Each structure stands twice: as structure tokens, then as C-alpha cells.
């Protein structure tokens, strides 16, 4: 990997494949994976104060307030001294400006996917409740649609992967997160990958961008 590109963020609508790509990228590069969605789901699962504050926003497909998110992720970014891969953060211009003050990025990879494709993918998404592996019943179905092929855990649907919530999450993405594309293009940090290419081709493109 290019030694200069160790502070990386993945941008893109829900369902574009950020989580799947992030797992493959960290396995290849050793960067620390920081997913605000995963951290929040863990906080909700443990019933912490932050989890209780975040839960309603998440269930409705809204963004959790910037202050809570920046407090939650700031320390973890500071601890990831050998580099990090952000997945699901920043999601607003205010978060991007806060991140600039904590640790400016080296590159932002935008994985784009149109709305109808997002809805088709996310309604078919299942996640292993044990190991977190992500499946898609439409595109890469496991042999048994209720069981993780890797660890035997139960496959579940995320509460926010219902069609009405997905559609709202896409609106939230367009209104609040998509402006970051121009924000980072203006800083000459933006690189693009077409999410419709499929997981393997997107991964190849990401490795090319990272110089791996
Ligand atoms: P994700 O797994 O990235 O799709 O995130 C799931 C949900 O967690 C989102 O719909 C938001 O409610 C919340 N969330 C995750 N990351 C952020 C963020 N950076 N800012 C605000 N809310 C977030």
C-alpha cells in the first residue's frame, strides 16, 4: 500500500457495499476498521447511555446527532496510529469539518449506487448475528438462508433494512451526506468506484486507488 494513504474514508449510500469492502480492505492492508454503524449497534445492543440516545434515530433511519458521533469516534481515530479505514463516517459536512481537526484524511473513496439498486440490495441483506458476516439473499445466497456458512450463526435482517426505512435513509444520504462528494472533490481527495460493478471489481478498484 502506498505509505501516504493510511487515513482513508469510504463514502456512498447505504447498501453500496461499504461494510463488505471495509472488511476486505482491512484484511488486506491492516488498517483499523472504524464503522460508526457497527459501534452504534454494539452500544444499542449493550443498552449503554449512548445506545439509548441513538436507538430512536437509527430505527427511523435518521442520522444520530453530530456531537454524539464525533465524541464517540474521535478517540478511536486518535488511537489508530498506523492508519484507519472509516466506514459510515463522516456523514455530514459538520462531521467532516470535525474530522479535519482530529486527523485529516489522505483519500476518500466514493462507492456510488442508484436508489433502486440500493432498495433491491438492502431488502435482501442478512447479517450473521454471531460473526457479523454480510450476505445477500438475491446475489450471493448462502446454502441455508437462515444460517451463516462461515460460523453457523443465525442470519438476521437489520431493523433499518425494511423498505420504508431504506427509502428514507436514501433521502437522508442525498440531503446530508452526498454534499461531501463535492466537499472532498474540492480538496482533491475524492476517488470514485461504481458500486454496480459488483463486490470483486469494486475491491480491485479500491486496491488500485490505495496502491496495494
Ligand atoms: P450504517 O450501518 O452505516 O448504515 O449506519 C446505521 C445507522 O447508524 C444510520 O442510519 C444512522 O442512524 C447511524 N449512523 C451511523 N453512522 C453515523 C454517522 N456518521 N452520523 C450519524 N449517524 C450515523
Write the layout of secondary structure elements.
Elements: E1 7-11, H1 18-29, E2 32-35, H2 36-46, H3 49-60, H4 66-79, E3 84-87, H5 93-102, E4 107-112, H6 115-123, E5 125-128, E6 134-136, E7 155-156, H7 163-177, H8 179-186, E8 190-194, H9 199-210
Parallel strand pairs: 1-3, 1-4, 2-3, 4-8
Antiparallel strand pairs: 5-6, 5-7
Bound molecules: adenosine monophosphate (AMP).
Overall description:
- The protein is an alpha/beta fold and 212 residues long.
- The termini are close together.
- The chain has helices at 18-29, 36-46, 49-60, 66-79, 93-102, 115-123, 163-177, 179-186, 199-210; strands spanning 7-11, 32-35, 84-87, 107-112, 125-128, 134-136, 155-156, 190-194.
- Helix 6 crosses helix 7.
- Strands 2-3-1-4-8 form a five-stranded parallel sheet, with helices on both faces.
- The relative contact order is 0.20.
- It is built from nine helices and eight strands.
- Adenosine monophosphate binds next to helix 2 and helix 3.
Quick description:
49% of the residues lie in helices and 16% in strands. It has 212 residues and is of the alpha/beta class.
How would you describe this structure in keywords?
five-stranded parallel sheet, binds adenosine monophosphate, Rossmann fold, single chain, 49% helix, alpha/beta
Spatial shape: globular
The CATH topology turns out to be Rossmann fold
Largest sheet, strands/sense/barrel: 5 strands, parallel
Count the domains: 1
Based on secondary structure, the structural category is alpha/beta
Mean pLDDT across all amino acids: 95
Share in β-strands? 15-25%
Amino acid at each position: 500500500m502506498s505509505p501516504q494513504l493510511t487515513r482513508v474514508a469510504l463514502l456512498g449510500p447505504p447498501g453500496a457495499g461499504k461494510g463488505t469492502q471495509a472488511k476486505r480492505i482491512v484484511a488486506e492492508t491492516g488498517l483499523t476498521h472504524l464503522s460508526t454503524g457497527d459501534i452504534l449497534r454494539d452500544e444499542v445492543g449493550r443498552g449503554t447511555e449512548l445506545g439509548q440516545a441513538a436507538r430512536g434515530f437509527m430505527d427511523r433511519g435518521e442520522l444520530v446527532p453530530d456531537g454524539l458521533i464525533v465524541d464517540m469516534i474521535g478517540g478511536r481515530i486518535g488511537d489508530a496510529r498506523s492508519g484507519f479505514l472509516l466506514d459510515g463516517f463522516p456523514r455530514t459536512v459538520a462531521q467532516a469539518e470535525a474530522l479535519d481537526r482530529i486527523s485529516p484524511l489522505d483519500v476518500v473513496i466514493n462507492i456510488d449506487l442508484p436508489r433502486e439498486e440500493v432498495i433491491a440490495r438492502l431488502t435482501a441483506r442478512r447479517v450473521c448475528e454471531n460473526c457479523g458476516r454480510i450476505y445477500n439473499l438475491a446475489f450471493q445466497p448462502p446454502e441455508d438462508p437462515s444460517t451463516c456458512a462461515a460460523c453457523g450463526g443465525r442470519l438476521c435482517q437489520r431493523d433499518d433494512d425494511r423498505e420504508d426505512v431504506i427509502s428514507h435513509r436514501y433521502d437522508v444520504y442525498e440531503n446530508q451526506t452526498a454534499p461531501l462528494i463535492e466537499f472532498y472533490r474540492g480538496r482533491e481527495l475524492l476517488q470514485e468506484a461504481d458500486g454496480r460493478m459488483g463486490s470483486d471489481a469494486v475491491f480491485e478498484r479500491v486496491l488500485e486507488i490505495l496502491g496495494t
